[in-house]
Design a protein that fits this description.
The complex is a heterodimer. By secondary structure, chain A is mainly alpha-helical. Chain A contains 13 helices and no strands. The chains are: A mainly alpha, B mainly alpha. Chains A and B meet through helix 1, helix 2, helix 3, helix 9 and helix 12 of A and strand 2, helix 2, strand 3, helix 4 and helix 5 of B.
Chain lengths: 330, 301
């Protein structure tokens, strides 16, 4: 009877530890780790290791399926509670701004250059197409989007559209709408990168063509410079954000299509998490762009002031993404 | 010249939903992936919650607008727009980035998100797996709604949108790890969250002493009749403690052992369980695991 005695002994000896671990895990899952006492925090890893070793022993010596199953579930629960503990929110936010965001943007620099080039080239191409044959205009911009600003519009209409007195009461709704709409579009551009980046590229070209065609409508009336200022006051931030979102999408597409030395899954996961960090930043940038577009543009109507604001923003972003998070780089 | 070495082919994942995770302490833990059905139910629950919140908040804002001063209506519009945006994009993110790594739907279905490598689940991974919902759920949904509303749902566009939605929707069923597009991108998967109670110790006899006295001790041949598999089925029966089951099982075991006594089913099964477990566990200590009654390894030793 010695062996029976030993297995029963095994359980009786350790049962209290298991119950205590279970109790601590319950506390940990319900509340913040800070609410646990010092004693609990010291006990937790010790109990986890004790339970893991109980599991190993039970697997090798016990035929009690319920006991092994219980230890298995308890160990797994403790493993995830201990090893996947999150950092506090505040530290995560700090890490995001000081290192993660600028580093991730730098990591997708090749795609970012490509995305910017795509946007500019498609704008230039669309501009020339519309200038040579105005019929192209309607192909680039839908009538609702143009809202009267087409090739046949008079100079006065166009002037009104970029310098006109804003309708004061709607500003905040307008700004919010722009922010949510633009964010949704850029999230879509990012997500579509999954399909080898091709839809993302199409979306970028479409956006570039839109801006180019608009220019073609304004330039003949001598309003090219004014339209540029009207666009760039928020555009440096907004187009920058769209270029970054496009780049993040292409980054995923590249990883899925050409994983290199890693497995396709590992490459995709790596690119995806990096892209997600970039996308949090893109949403923040679009929030700022929405504020500039909704408020600053309607309140500042002077060309050079608009350009100064846009230029300053561009300089700030460039500086931040180039030099941010360099210190302590791994 | 060093030839570029071929990437080592990883062994394919097994067809079942059982996966192993080796802890840094070197102990393998068995995980069970969430089944496609559980995942779908969890999503449905979350979708219903989101819809309910959206409708409830919209009605509340409408009531406030119609009741309050006229100047405040633009504020409510801003709140609604931002609220809709946050709900659509961050409902899943906020819950999965939390301590339980599960949305209310997943929690109800006893699921949680973990990283495939077993490492910490980062906020970025949660963000990545949920931004993908944009093309998995919202894009085909809005496309279809838009197409029907505009009356331009031609056979072609409808087929395309439906095909798109179906491919992404059923992606988890087409791979063994039940990964959807977002899981692929984020390096995560969804596992079952199991909380088990420790069962009673069956070695402690509960039957009446008078009954126990009637059970004759088991011979070595009788203890060699079964293996670990049968022992654990017997354990299930004892834990269920259903009278008719006890009768059926004890009759079957007695017939196999060639015993002719009757009655005292519980006492008989408990005694046999304890004796068999004692017997098999002692063999286990000597490195002989008798898996089931057909396993001959230890029978002839």
């Amino acid at each position: 009877m010695t062996v029976t005695f030993a297995t029963r002994h095994f359980r009786a000896e350790r049962e209290a530890d298991w119950a205590r671990l279970e109790e601590l895990l319950g506390k940990l899952e319900a509340k913040s780790p800070r609410r646990l006492s010092d004693e609990d925090l010291v006990d937790l890893p010790r109990l986890y290791r004790a339970t893991l070793s109980s599991l190993s022993i039970a697997r090798a010596t016990s035929l009690d399926a319920s006991l092994v199953g219980y230890l298995e579930a308890l160990s797994t629960r403790a493993y995830f509670a201990l090893y996947s503990a999150r950092e506090p929110w505040l530290r995560q936010v700090k890490a995001f701004f000081t290192t993660l965001w600028p580093r991730s943007v730098r990591a997708i620099a090749p795609e970012l250059l490509l995305a910017t080039a795509l946007l500019i080239l498609s704008a230039v191409a669309s501009y020339h197409l519309v200038r040579t044959d105005p019929a192209w205009y309607s192909a680039m911009i839908s009538p609702e989007m143009a809202s009267g600003r087409d090739m046949n519009a008079s100079a006065a209409t166009l002037r009104e559209s970029i310098y006109g007195e804003p309708n004061e009461s709607g500003l905040e709704i307008f700004a919010t709408f722009l922010f949510t709409h633009n964010s949704q579009v850029s999230i879509m551009a990012f997500a579509l990168g999954f399909l080898f980046g091709i839809p993302t590229i199409i979306l970028a070209v479409q956006n570039g063509a839109l801006a180019g065609a608009m220019f073609a409508a304004f330039v003949p009336h001598g309003l090219g410079w004014g339209f540029f200022a009207w666009l760039m006051i928020h555009g440096t931030t907004e187009i920058g954000a769209i270029a970054i979102a496009t780049a993040a999408g292409m980054h995923i597409g590249r990883a899925v299509a050409f994983p290199g030395e890693r497995t396709r899954m590992a490459a995709a996961a790596d690119a995806g998490t990096r892209g997600a960090i970039v996308m949090i930043g893109v949403i923040l940038m679009l929030l700022i762009a929405g504020l500039l577009e909704g408020f600053a543009r309607q309140l500042v109507t002077d060309d050079s002031a608009r350009l100064a604001i846009g230029g300053t923003m561009l300089a700030l972003w460039t500086l931040y993404f180039t030099f941010g998070g360099r210190r302590g780089a791994a | 010249m060093a030839r570029r070495e071929r990437k080592a082919r990883k062994p394919r994942a097994p067809r079942t939903l059982d996966r192993q995770l080796v802890t840094p302490e070197g102990v393998p833990l068995n995980l069970r992936l969430g089944s496609a059905g559980a995942r779908a139910s969890a999503f449905l629950i979350d979708a219903i919650i989101m819809l309910a919140v959206l409708i409830g908040a919209s009605l509340l804002i409408l009531a406030l607008v119609s009741g309050g001063p006229s100047g405040a209506s633009s504020l409510y519009a801003v709140v609604w727009l931002l609220g809709f945006f946050l709900l659509r994009n961050f409902y899943f993110v906020l819950f999965e980035a939390g301590r339980r790594a599960a949305t209310p739907g997943k929690r109800l279905m006893k699921l949680r998100v973990v990283s495939r490598s077993g490492a910490r689940l980062t906020g970025a991974a949660v963000m990545a797996r949920n931004l993908m919902r944009e093309i998995e759920v919202f894009l085909p949904l809005f496309f279809l709604l838009f197409a029907f509303a505009e009356g331009m749902a031609t056979a072609w566009t409808a087929t395309l949108a439906l095909g798109w939605a179906l491919i992404l929707l059923f992606l988890p069923v087409f791979n063994r790890d039940r990964l959807r597009a977002g899981d692929l991108i984020a390096g995560t998967w969804v596992v079952e969250r199991e909380v088990r109670k420790l069962g009673e110790d069956l070695l402690i006899q509960t039957a009446h002493e008078k009954d126990m006295a009637r059970i004759a001790p088991f011979t070595a041949a009788e203890l060699d009749a079964y293996g670990a598999f049968e022992l654990q089925r017997l354990e299930d029966v004892l834990r269920r403690n259903d009278r008719s089951d006890l009768f059926a099982v004890s009759t079957a075991i007695r017939r196999k052992l060639g015993r002719t006594d009757e009655g005292a089913d519980l006492a008989f099964l408990e005694a046999y369980y304890a004796a068999l477990r004692h017997h098999l566990e002692r063999k286990l200590l000597f490195g002989q695991r008798k898996r089931d009654k057909y396993d001959q390894i230890s029978a002839n030793s």
